[in-house]
Write a structure and sequence with these properties.
Strand content: 5-15%
Number of strands: 7
Radius of gyration: 44 Å
Mean pLDDT: 75
Distance between the termini: 66 Å
Number of domains: 2
Largest sheet: 5 strands, mixed
Order of helices and strands: HEHHHHHHHEHHEEEHEHHE
Number of helices: 13
Structural class: alpha/beta
Length: about 350
């Protein structure tokens, strides 16, 4: 039961998981937002720019339609002039709309924080060649939701356009005898009405789809308890590995410390629980230095090495306990213990007959 629970993805994604997904190009994004942005850009362009553009087009193109024989001169210069007029008309229409379309398509992605560049998204995947995987993608929940959105949008936009276009079609017979000058404004109003309804439909769909896509994304990249444990191990290190590393460090430290015991001048004990190895070399050390210390089994090991290397062992429980608690390995002993340590070292030096050391009590 515990194993199944640890494999179920019920936890919200961590910041590291979100960053990893973003680095792979997997972000929460609603394409309907971009579609609505494009429709809105076209609508704004039609309202703000189309009137001026249509009038300019009318001023440039209507003479060609009303009096083509008079306007178009059958010469190379006349044809070039007509071509320049047509290009200018197209530029007036397309340039503002192109800028608005670019903004309408890109800004929704920026607002959704969905701009991410990753080479993994364009790398070929062998799983895409599998028919079984293809059927799974075609009939997955995500694909069905996308199909439902597209169908709903197509039906809604179709109905809206039909409701707007039907009156225009009914009244189109009367436009045959109308003046050409009214056509640009009529086209603008008709296009604005169709775009307004279409944009409203797209905005409503985007308003529903954007929060849904972000909710579905968060749900899709959820983590299991095991995923969270693995992430913590990768960040902080495997506890078992860290324990082994600490053990190895302690062992190396212990080995180095034991190598210093033969260089000690004297070993202070209490007599069994603590052992402190002091070194003092005149002209080299400013004061006695603790080169090794330990309790219980380590203290016993220090005494054994000292005995085998003929290092003097002196029992002084108060001094041994004090140095064990207050001085770290490699440090000089505190000044308040100088006098007592000096007496012990002087005793050791006076017995420099170097016979096998015997524990003494001061």
């Amino acid at each position: 039961m515990a194993e199944s629970d640890s494999g179920e993805k019920t936890l919200d994604a961590s910041e590291q998981r979100l960053k990893q997904a973003r680095d792979e190009g997997d972000v929460a994004v609603s394409r309907e937002g971009s579609v609505a942005g494009v429709y809105l850009a076209v609508l704004l362009g039609t309202v703000l720019v189309a009137g001026t553009a249509m009038r300019e087009i009318g001023n440039l193109m209507l003479p060609l339609l009303d009096q083509p024989d008079f306007t178009l001169v059958g010469s190379e210069q006349g044809m070039a002039s007509a071509g320049r007029a047509a290009i200018l008309a197209i530029t007036l229409v397309l340039a503002p709309f192109f800028g608005m379309l670019m903004a309408g398509a890109l800004l929704p992605y920026i607002f959704q924080n969905a701009v991410a560049v990753s080479s993994k998204r364009i790398m070929p995947k062998l799983s895409h060649l599998s028919p079984r995987s293809g059927f799974k993608r075609m009939f997955s929940q995500r694909a069905l939701v996308e199909f439902g959105k597209s169908l709903t949008k197509m039906i809604a936009v179709g109905i809206a356009c039909w409701l707007i276009a039907k009156p225009l079609y009914t009244n189109s017979v009367g436009l045959v005898s109308a003046d050409f000058s009214v056509l640009p404004e009529l086209m603008k109003n008709s296009l604005t009405a169709i775009l307004l309804v279409t944009t409203l439909v797209a905005v409503v769909i985007a308003g529903i789809d954007v929060p849904y896509q972000h909710w579905a994304y968060r749900r899709r990249i959820r983590m299991s308890v095991q995923d969270m444990r693995d992430e913590m191990r990768s960040n902080e290190g495997d506890p078992h590995v860290k324990m082994r590393q600490r053990k190895l460090r302690r062992q190396r430290f212990m080995n180095r410390m034991m190598l210093e015991v033969p260089t000690a001048t004297v070993i202070i004990t209490n007599p069994t629980h603590f052992a402190i190895a002091l070194r003092y070399e005149r002209g080299k050390d400013p004061a006695p230095i603790v080169v090794a210390k330990g309790a219980d089994l380590i203290a016993q090991k220090i005494r054994e090495i000292a005995f085998n290397n003929q290092v003097a062992i002196i029992e002084n429980p108060p001094l041994a306990r004090a140095l064990y608690k207050t001085v770290e390995i490699g440090e000089v002993i505190p000044q308040e213990y100088f006098e007592l340590a000096a007496k012990i070292i002087s005793l050791v030096w006076s017995q420099s007959g170097r016979q096998p050391p015997v524990a003494k009590s001061l």
